[in-house]
Amino acid sequence: MAKYLEGQLQQEQGNFVKAIAIYKELLDKFPGNRDAITNMARCYQSLNKQEEMVVFLNGLLSKNPNNISAGLVLSDLYLINKEFDKASAVLTKLIKNKTKIPQVYMSLANVKLVQNESKAAISVYLEGLKQNPDNIKL
Prior knowledge:
It is built from eight helices and no strands. By secondary structure, it is mainly alpha-helical. The chain is elongated and about 45 Å long.
């Protein structure tokens, strides 16, 4: 916890390179930590080095294809860069790996909506509901 707070402090002070190093150290121990991944992505964005974050996230996913946090942040980065097919592929792969996390279905449906594929988005939502019948967000 202290390391994470140190990373946040460095980030808030604009020391993005130091913050990234701290977040990487944390992610070596806890590769699925969503907060560390998200803050690290923000640091790379502040440095205009989003592509390095994409490479890092792909590395996390190659080590663990079920790393939900890495997949969600990676798909968000692809979405920001209007790389809709890549965002869709990342999320679809998570679902094919038997992920039942509602956020993955919601993110994939949102990608489909951005691509003007409303029928595909509805299909994704329905599949998500089938896997998570009690989830009110779906």
